[in-house]
Each structure stands twice: as C-alpha cells, then as structure tokens.
Design goal:
rod-shaped, single chain, about 45 residues, about 90% helix, mainly alpha
Length: about 45
C-alpha cells in the first residue's frame, strides 16, 4: 500500500509532467492564437 511519502512523490511527478505538457504543447498554441487575434485587431 502507498504511504504518504509515495503519494507526495507521485504528486510531484504528475505536477512536473503537467508543467512540461503546458510548456511544450499548450503555451505555443496560445501564443499563436494571441498573435492571430492581435493581427486581426491591428489590421482594422
């Protein structure tokens, strides 16, 4: 059975992996979306 130390290690690992996913997958797409919206507003 998992004890508190194991659960904390799993939690840290999952948080680290979520951070990697955010930085590598989601942030670049949000940046592209922000640029596209900015271009729409500055083009008018």
């Amino acid at each position: 059975m998992l004890d508190e130390k194991d659960l904390q290690a799993i939690d840290q690992l999952m948080a680290h992996r979520m951070n990697i996913i955010l930085e590598s997958e989601i942030s670049p797409k949000l940046n592209l979306l922000a640029k596209a919206i900015r271009n729409l507003y500055t083009a008018t």
